[in-house]
Design a protein that fits this description.
The chain is mainly alpha-helical. Helix content is 67%, strand content 3%. The strands form 2 sheets. A 3-stranded antiparallel β-sheet has the order 4-1-6, with no helix packed on it. 23% of the residues are buried.
């Protein structure tokens, strides 16, 4: 019988619990110092209150079970079931061990042992299962088989206390474990809001963003300053992101496009977790329209198979789905921004590193600034939309399932054809948008380059009265960029109009086909279909922006990838080769030019004979203005491209003082040392 099975089950649970608690008790006795443990004075007032509440709940549950056994024995003159006896013994044992552990816990820790947490979680789930079976049999007209255990008064009375025990213990175990004990005794006291709460946050804190509470509380009390902002976690630093990107780049094959694959390879783990949250959010958002037909039919009384419990179950499912949708959406959005920041930091460091390696590259200053300000920002923002690529067909698939269930095959098939037609019609517009965006970026590079040169040489322009001429040149470049931008915005407007009208078009076609085939339309089916169209509107509305973001991101990635590949194909600087001879610099015949990428290969500097500079020599380069003295020095330090010749070898270190000094904002010592130690 069910009673015999439950008695046997309780007896096995009691045996396992006794063995586990005994082993934990022995381990705890060995871990304690001779003088006993440290009390919970350092655990904080919140954890002290929770400790006492957990102990009180265990005592109350033990009293409930023990009182029932006494009532069965003395009042009713019957022997209580063995299942209740074993349950009472389990709770008494758990209560005694909890009180002992509370007094003897080591180091002021507020964590509970795994055996207690496991028992509290297990008992809560078991009570929830039995109470659910009891409520379903009570409200439903179709009773479940007798093989399922039924709930009793003790389960209803102790269930709230068990749930509180479960959540309180999980909260305390998931919280930060005494960070004060890990700090040096003589370290400077750190501001509470400056700690890296994100890296040490537990599951509940990450789920509800409780790790932000210290900053929010500080901001509510006073104006936030820079020292109030928490430090950046180690996993989110630019150094970590750059190292992951470089490691992923080394794993890529050069014949493929390495940069997109390397970016995905560097963030694939958080991207997969983010995709899981996006999928949960989508599935939970479609659960409501899927079950709304059942709920409406239940309200109209058409489904008389089940009782009132069926409605309560549907209401609980709606509540659970909406809660899951909200939580997963918050995690999805936060994770997408987090991945975008990592990618943006890694690409910025990569571009900066490459620009330091090859200053004489064909890329202008305006183009590099555009890389950092526009292209890198756009690639980082793309991870906000990346899951829309696979979520859109998934959402359409779920919508078709709901429409097929409510409206039939004809209406769902017509809705699918309409959606595909709208998507296909966007292909030529998307290609035109990508081409126009490339033109916009080229025009913007030219404008920024001209603006930077004008501002840099403003004194010369004023001296020669060239302000109007250069102003007209800047206006011309600006008008050219504006013309491409106007055509690009017209194309975006056409795409936006097409897809803003598509949800209405899909719903009109679906309901029109239902009327033609005389499909039955009830209040539940119509409401479910309208809710489905309403949810489907969001991905369709976001599709123009998604297409635009994909095209813009592709252009930005191609630009940055060409820049990195161009830098890698450049000849390297002269190497600092150690040699035992007296030769310090060995200059071979060759030709050098500043315009290495231009069609004209006229050299700026031509060295027609071999030159050797010996150790200890002092050499002066003399010549008229424009004869190539500075270019000759730049060829030695590798700052001017070589178009032919053997090159220059430097044996030892080099130092260069330019004509135009670059003075940093700082002391003379800092300018001389330039970041190095004395």
């Amino acid at each position: 019988s069910v009673e015999a099975v439950m008695e046997y089950f309780n007896m096995v649970a009691f045996s396992l619990l006794v063995s586990w608690i005994t082993a934990e008790f022995v381990r705890l006795r060995k871990a304690l110092p001779e003088g006993g443990g440290v009390g919970e004075g350092s655990a904080g007032k919140t954890y002290m209150v929770l400790d006492w509440l957990i102990a009180l709940c265990n005592i109350l549950i033990s009293i409930i079970y023990l009182g029932f056994c006494i009532h069965e024995t003395w009042k009713l003159k019957t022997v209580p079931p063995l299942g209740f006896v074993f349950s009472a013994m389990c709770w008494i044992l758990v209560t005694l061990f909890a009180l002992y552990y509370k007094q003897k816990r080591v180091g002021g820790s507020h964590c509970w042992p795994l055996v207690l947490v496991s028992w509290w979680v297990f008992s809560s789930l078991l009570k929830f299962f039995t109470i659910s079976i009891h409520l379903f049999n009570h409200w439903s007209k179709v009773a479940l088989p007798d093989i399922f255990p039924a709930a009793n008064t003790i389960d209803f009375a102790s269930f709230p206390l068990s749930v509180f025990l479960c959540f309180a213990a999980l909260f305390m175990n998931a919280s930060e474990r005494n960070p004060e004990l890990k700090q040096p005794l003589l370290s400077e006291v750190e501001n509470e809001t400056c700690r890296d709460n994100f890296s040490n946050a537990g599951f509940w804190s990450l789920l509800t963003f409780r790790w932000l509470n210290p900053v929010l509380a500080k901001g509510r009390a006073e104006r936030l300053e820079l020292h109030h902002v928490p430090v950046v976690p180690q996993s989110e630093t630019a150094e970590k992101a750059y190292s992951l990107l470089q490691e992923s780049l080394r794993r890529q094959k050069p014949e493929f496009l390495p940069l997109p694959r390397a970016i995905i390879g560097a963030v694939w783990k958080p991207l997969a977790i983010n995709a899981l949250f996006a999928g949960l959010n989508t599935a939970s958002s479609y659960l409501g329209p899927f079950l709304i037909t059942n709920f409406v039919e239940f309200l109209y009384g058409k489904d008389s198979t089940f009782g009132d419990g069926y409605g309560y179950i549907l209401a609980c499912i709606f509540l659970f789905a909406k809660t899951l949708e909200s939580l997963s959406q918050r995690q999805w959005y936060f994770g997408a921004r987090q991945i975008g920041v990592r990618v943006r930091a890694a690409l910025m460091v990569s571009i900066y590193d490459k620009s330091l390696m090859m200053k004489y590259s064909g890329s202008s200053m305006g183009k590099i600034i555009n890389f950092l300000d526009v292209d890198v920002e756009r690639i980082g923002d793309f991870f906000w939309y990346i899951h829309g690529i696979w979520l859109l067909p998934f959402q359409v698939f779920l919508a078709l399932i709901i429409l097929y269930r409510n409206l039939g095959a004809a209406a769902s098939f017509s809705a699918l054809l309409t959606t595909i037609l709208v998507m296909v019609s966007n292909t030529p517009l998307a290609n035109s948008q990508e081409r126009l965006h490339s033109k916009i970026m080229e025009a913007k590079d030219s404008r920024i380059k001209a603006t930077a040169e004008t501002l840099k040489c403003m004194r010369i322009l004023k001296l020669h009265s060239w302000e109007n001429a250069y102003r007209d040149k800047l206006f011309e470049l600006r008008d050219k960029e504006r013309s491409w931008l106007r055509r690009y915005l017209y194309t975006c407007s056409a795409i936006a109009f097409l897809f803003w009208a598509s949800p209405t078009l899909v719903s009109v076609v679906a309901f029109g086909v239902c009327i033609l085939v005389k499909a039955p339309l009830s209040a539940g089916t119509v409401l479910s279909a309208l809710a489905t169209f309403r949810i489907l509107q969001e991905p369709i509305y976001n599709l123009p922006e998604l297409v635009s973001m994909i095209t813009q991101t592709k252009v930005s990635i191609d630009r940055i990838q060409d820049f990195i590949k161009e830098e890698q194909q450049r000849p390297s600087r002269p190497n600092d080769i150690k040699q035992a001879s007296d030769v310090v610099i060995e200059i071979e015949p060759g030709e050098y030019t500043w315009e290495a990428d231009s069609s004209s290969k006229r050299p700026t500097l031509k060295i027609d004979k071999k030159i050797e500079i010996m150790r200890g020599d002092k050499v002066a380069v003399c010549g008229s203005v424009g004869s190539g003295k500075s270019s000759f020095l730049c060829s030695i330090i590798g700052e001017i491209p070589r178009i032919n010749g053997a090159g220059i070898e430097v044996f030892g270190s080099r130092a260069y003082v330019p004509q135009s000094a670059w003075i940093q904002t700082g002391t003379i010592k800092e300018n001389v040392l330039f970041g190095k130690e004395m």
